[in-house]
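Lab manual, section 2.4: Encoding a predicted structure.

Procedure: take the sequence of the chain (52 residues), apply the prediction step described in section 2.3, and record the output as structure tokens. A sample record is shown.
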Amino acid sequence: MDEATRFDATVRKVLTVSHEELVRREKAWKRKRAAKKRAKTSPASRASESKV
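Recorded output:
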């Protein structure tokens, strides 16, 4: 399959998804990403915990 055919197929798949579905998935992705960032602790907080 050449590159142009793959690109066309990808564009067709993207265009079949409604705008509402894209927005919903993006919000879910952002929430998941934000949760991962909150879960990590900073090196400064780890250093202060070890002294206690």
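Check your result against the sample. The chain has three helices and no strands.
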